Every structure is written in structure tokens, then in C-alpha cells.
Amino acid sequence: MIKGIGIDMVELSRIEKIIENKTSFVRRVLTDNEYVLFQKLPHKRQVEFLAGRFACKEAFSKAWGTGIGSVGLQDIEVLKEDNGAPKVTKSPHDGKVFVSISHTDTVAVAQIILEID
User: Which GO terms describe its cellular component (predicted)?
Assistant: First the structure.
């Protein structure tokens, strides 16, 4: 049974400015494991990666029904499967978590579905 669905969209230009001007934001959003992946990427992919992860965490908080605050950015971790597909590896949700991330030249969008037995 579906417990919640959340979606969020982030402008890449906004994230690029944040990476350049507020480097502490990157560490506030990304877990240590996510940050390791982030550091290995070229700049353009870093922007997409951070935007996608931020969108995932916002979407999760919407699906969770609380918004960011009750569930923190560090409470949710999105890594990847061997095939590259995103995977939520840490969250306060006990059931299944489905995630999808997509990018265009200007935005990143993420959708989260929370399922319970």
C-alpha cells in the first residue's frame, strides 16, 4: 500500500550558484557517502548530482508528510545501484522507498513513493 508520494523540482542554475558561493550547503545536503560520489564528478555532473539529491530529499519529506525540518537532509541518503539507478539507502521509513531522478539542461526533478506492507 502506498503511504505517500512526493515530487520536487530544482533549477540547476540555482544549485550552480550555491556550489560556487555557499560551499557549506553541499555538506549540509549530502551525507558522507553521497559526498564521496559528488567529489568524483566533473563540475557539470556535480551540479546535476546535488540538484537531484536535494530534490530527492525534498520529495521524500513531502511523501513523508512533514516537509524538511521534521526529517532532516542528513536523514535521507540516495546512492546508486550497480546499474547506476538511484537507490534510497537511508531514511526514517520502514517500508520500501522508490525513487526516480531526471534532468534536463535547466532542471532536476525527483519523485519518491513510500510503500508500507
Answer: cytoplasm
Catalytic residue among 62, 80, 90, 93: 62
- Which residues define the annotated binding site for Mg(2+)? 8, 58
Domain boundaries, given as residue ranges, for the chain? 2-115
Respond yes or no: is residue 3 known to be catalytic: no
What DSSP letter does each residue of the chain carry, written as one string? Answer: -EEEEEEEEEEHHHHHHHHHH-HHHHHHHS-HHHHHHHHTS-HHHHHHHHHHHHHHHHHHHHHHTS-BTTB-GGG-EEEE-TTS-EEEEE-S-SSEEEEEEEE-SSEEEEEEEEE--
Say which CATH class 2-115 falls into: alpha beta
Q: What percent of the chain has pLDDT over 90?
A: 88
pLDDT digits (tens, 9 = 90+) for 51-91: 999 999 999 999 999 878 788 999 999 999 999 899 999 99
Among the listed residues 40, 80, 90, 103, the single catalytic one is 103
